[in-house]
Amino acid sequence: MYYLQLSWIYLSLTLRSMTVDKFNKKKLRFFISIFVTLVALYVGVRYLAKHRYLLTQLSHTPPKTILTVLGLYILVFGVLLLILFCSLRICDKQLKLQENVLLNAYSLFINFFIPGQGGPAFRGLYLKKRHRLKLRDYIAVTLLYYMFYGIIGVFFIFLGARPGWQTIIVSTVMAIISIVIIRTYFGSQRFNKSTLSLRWAKVSLLLLATLLQAIIQTTIYYLELHSVNNHVAIHQIITYTGVANLALFVGLTPGAIGIRESFLVLSEHLHHISSANIVVANVIDRSVYLLLLLIVFILMIGLHAKDKLLIKSSESTADNQD
């Protein structure tokens, strides 16, 4: 499924060179995303209207839980900084900490508020214009990250829902496939002239950072679900996390609104968490995430993000080159 996400990123990165017909495709994609978002919001509101007790249950969420989840989301943001740092090390590039923070802050806003998950595309264009990072290398290292992200998602699903021996077999097969892909695809003649530095120490650090991201996400979902139903077991939440993470690969709506929830409801036979619990937990999750975005927005204003990233000059440079 990470190939679908990579294709979406690649499409976004090439929008500037599109013809009129392809520009129409861009508009079509935008309207489809808006339509899916509105449908998802309508279904969600209608569901809550028919199950008002869920809103009552939501209002009883302890403030301590909300603050803890918010703190964990801030920690996730820190892990995203680490992931970008590890990715750029593979490309033999480096960002200052403040630039890394602001670039990821902009990406969060783009991913949540703009249809199509355009954050990675924005980072690719920015790194190309400001740090001369080849688009081919950026796509390659992004593919590597999404491969790890997808593999960990599948691993979590098996870890929580299937017997241990099946998890071991699947993990071994996925590890072998990953090694083969890294050796053949990234070691092919196509990448011989690239600046990628695929040392195992650097690749392993990216893998560990991605795993850390998934572990923190599991902790977040644990707190959210336990605030709704404290009888949910940890193995259910691990599977729930795997499904939620894989849903982001087809997150065509802003913030993957409706997509993640649909995946979780449709996969109820895997994690055995009821639809009612999923709805309330996701309302908590979306609410806390909006608080995170508010904090990030204040941070961006305080650090004069647009001036520090020189976004206007980068955009004008890109326009002059088209």
Question: What does the model show?
Answer:
The structure is a single chain. The protein has 322 residues and is an all-alpha fold. The protein has one domain. The protein contains 15 helices and no strands. The two termini are 31 Å apart. The N terminus and C terminus are likely disordered.
How is the secondary structure organized here?
Layout: H1 2-13, H2 20-50, H3 52-59, H4 63-90, H5 97-113, H6 119-131, H7 135-161, H8 164-184, H9 200-228, H10 234-247, H11 259-266, H12 268-271, H13 275-302, H14 305-309, H15 311-321
The share of residues in helices is: over 70%
Tell me the number of strands.
Answer: 0
Quickly give the structural class: mainly alpha
Shape: globular
Which strand-content bin applies to the residues?
under 5%
How can the largest sheet be summarized? none
Briefly say what this structure is.
The chain contains 15 helices and no strands. With 322 residues, it is mainly α. Helix 3 packs across helix 13.
